[in-house]
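Hi, can you check this record?
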Amino acid sequence: MGAFMNSISHPSELFAMLEYKLVRPAAVENPAVDANGKTASEARFRSYDYLNRTSRSFAAVIKELDEELMDPVCLFYVILRGLDTVEDDMTLPLDLKVAQLRSFHEDIYKEGWTFTKSGPNEKDRDLLVHFNYVIEHFLSINPVYQTVIADITRRMGYGMAEFCTRRVATVEDYNLYCHYVAGLVGVGLSKLFAASKLEGEVFSQMDDLSNSMGLFLQKTNIIRDFLEDHLEGRLFWPREIWSEYCNDPEELCADQNLDKALACLNHMCMNALEHIPDAIEYMSRIRNQSVFNFCAIPQVMAISTITLVFNNPEVFKRNVKIRKGLACKLIMEAQNVDVVRAIFLEFLNEMARKNNNARDPNYVRISTLIAQVRWRLHTRPALDSPASSERLRLPLGMLNTPAQVELPTAWARVPSYLLHHVLARRCGPTSSLGLRLTDVTKTKLAPDGHWKRPASGLDTWANVLSSVAIGATAFLAARYITVGELL
């Protein structure tokens, strides 16, 4: 009920939640369990169990990967979560923590190895106490995947150990720390994609783009989690930035310093936005649908989150999160790179509207940066790829001639804005296809060749309430769409 009430003023999100519930396949709780409720491997079962416990959001996208990648990526995440648990444990003596971080990549090859020295209140302590199951599963996968996982674990462990003895002082330090804890994750995932043959060999060489994918996610989390980290005695915002606005980060939480706190917050957001063009470039090169969804969903969540926290005083008072309805909407929409680019542009436009405080010392710089990022996304050549047809729910990408979309006559009474919404979601941009609706609506393409986004119409309750019965089922019409070439 809470999610429903939070989205009550955003009808399109209610529509998306309904679609998510009825159309999207239910996630498998644990892939190690067969249809009869039995498991052939206790180690594999435990790995997915810990994956579900540590992060349900990442678990969901991992379990939707192609079978070839599912286990390697699951293990990659769980092993790095174990490493991260060691880094985050403030009860461990510094010398023990540093030594363990530097040897973790060797320990994952030791059958039966566990770590029992974590503090009693460490939330993922149980993972390390029973890490022998993860190791058993790790040793059973293809050695090619093992090599990638071990190498990234080594590089990350040494990087974490380095920052155990130094603070994040400069922006350069900040970028380096984010590289160690998140950029390397992107690098490792790209190498796993290439090793699986689901993506081209070029992915094993895309370190810069892979790094940007990780940095954008990590910086967004660091910005959002300022208060939580502050209360736990940690700070990842670089001194080079926060020292421009205060003498002590504690001052950012004081009401009388709100203007300075927001200026500092916006400065941090500005730093993160620089990675967006690389992220879009990376996603434009993906060919496999499950890999695309795995990469795109966290990215659209990140752009929505950073837009939410931008110029938002609540960041210094509570943990700010996007609405569940918005999350469902983004998950259902982020099915191809052109739609993802449109989502990014939409949130960048929202951020530009929120940048309305001329007293902010970064007001002009932020406006300029947002304009530059939008310009790069707008003017980038068409992001078509040989696999575009694989990403579309309809075989539209296979057509080189104009096509028409035919709907059953029974659907003629469905409001055009809902049909528009369905087709835009199912078909994505249609710049090269010249699609048109027949016998239903005369909706035309926007000048840029994309379907106009339905937010203004669909988020008007008068429109929704006038046809709630049909609206509740309109998206199901997409399951009956047929596409044919015009003669």
User: Anything to note?
Assistant: The longest helix spans residues 171-196. Residues 392-485 form one domain. The CA atoms of residues 109 and 139 lie 7 Å apart.
